Amino acid sequence: MKNKLKIGLIGAGGIAQTWVQAFERSETADLVAIADVRPVVADALAEGIGCRSYSSYLALANGESELDAVVICTPPSTHPEIANFFLASKVHVLCEKPLSIDTQSAREMLAAAKTNGVILTMATKFRYVEDVVRAKSIAASGLIGEIVLFENAFTAHVDMSSRWNSQVALSGGGVLIDNGTHSLDLMRYFLGPVVDVQVIEGKRSQGLDVEETVRIFVRSTAGVLGSIDLSWSINKEQESYLNIYGSQGTISVGWKESKYRLSSGREWVVFGNGYDKVQAFGSQIDNFCAGINGEDELLITAEDALASVEVIEAAYAALGRDSWTPVKERAA
After folding, report:
1. Fewest C-beta atoms under 10 Å: which of 57, 100, 203, 257?
2. What is the DSSP letter of 189?
3. CA 301 – CA 99 distance, rounded (Å)
4. CB contact set of 152 (below 8 Å; sequence gap of 6+)
5. Among 226, 246, 229, 240, which residue's Cα sits nearest to residue 272?
6. pTM exceeds 0.85
7. Residue 321's pLDDT band (boundaries 50, 70, 90)?
């Protein structure tokens, strides 16, 4: 068996808890160190897994001479600085979504990775969910015919008043950049490049300075229409978060069950048991390590990560235009 890669974790917030769980199960990587600007938080998380802790990413870099890679899960505005430091040190980087809050800094991150001959990729868990991977295979097989419509919804009522995700200086925006990065990456995964986007903002009920609810319409280069609902203020109570409608059938990817049905039949065929967050994170660690070792291609390339930033930037431009066409009804 090959030696496990030595990986450091930058950031010990909520998402880091799941990364730790995934590393505990990993057969390809060891989590050797955790850094956070809150030393007490880093110490507590590191103690649970039995690794070293540091008060900054610089301290971690200085203390870990045999580091192969890092996972960055700090607020998005900090991603370029941290990623570029490690890339310049020839350390591979897996960076939480979004890769960056603007395309210019994202391009600089890609250039740094290329210059130093190391891997840069983005963490977006849904590409690694087993049911999503199976759904992609079913769609690609032609079983449901040509894809006509893509629907996705990530909605949940969450109090965002005290979370950094709603502070534009740290996050780059609101629900659009936060949940929307997952959504638009999923659409690109199934449909390829995006050519048009329209975004409409809903009512703000939490009094935030950023968007809380949006509806996105997207069109792929193949002319497939995508509809995406995002919200921190409502829960649509849907069993599925992804539906793909083809000319000969439908695929439904759900939180607890995934299935497909052909237009010629009445019965749904179950192909998956739902969403497993730790499994998805673990699969991304394995794919990241395989990419580093030259054993497999990355499921999310640096170019995919950049494209996601470009689409989100275009979506915010569309949100800024937020125009409606008046309907002139005739008097009865």
Report:
1. 203
2. H
3. 12
4. 183, 186, 187, 226, 227, 228, 229, 241, 242, 243
5. 240
6. yes
7. confident
